[in-house]
Amino acid sequence: MDQEQLVMPGDKIGVEEEYIAADNTFVDDDGTIRSAIIGKAVISEGRISVVNERRDVRKFKRGMFVVGTVTDDVKSVMFVKIDNVSVDGKEYIAIKDGKIVAQTRRPPGRFDRGGGREGHGERGPPPAKAEKQAGVGDVILAKILYEDPEIFTLTLNDNEAGVIYSDCGLCGNEMRADGTAALVCDNCKNRVNRKVSPLYDNPEGIKRLFVQA
Ligand SMILES: [Zn+2]
Questions:
Q1: CA of 175 to the centre of ligand 1 (A)
Q2: 187: domain range?
């Protein structure tokens, strides 16, 4: 394995046929050696261990943006596999997954006095029924609302947040943001309504967002 690579708790780093499991590792019943900590795997004289050489490893916190992939959509909850992010020498480690609890859009005028923070201006009347903000397989930029021991609760209700990459569910072609709340497929003309991030397909812009954090 690549010894420069950062390993996470639970990552497979070897098997007992190859190495003796040493510091900061544990062994599964089937002989798989796994890392017990965040760090770098080191092999020396047939022993494999994991060391944390004080890299600037940080955990995501409330209020930060994360990038992840929607893996499941069960009733009104979307589950998100959060990516680790390396930016400016700092490595942000997710460790756990995220979830987004779907919110139905409010009917117009009921609570909104017109001075909404996000300025609905030229978007026209909201659709009559609730629509999915994202779909399974979409890559999203989301903000951490709060953190539970097992999971991050995320939201897409932020100006920058939304879908940042998506493949067509029908033909697999890369979807294009059409500048409204929709993604379109130029290949098969599929069209889906989404909460599209203004940073759709803009990795540099997304990176800048993390640098600011
Ligand atoms: Zn398509």
A1: 7
A2: 58-112+127-212
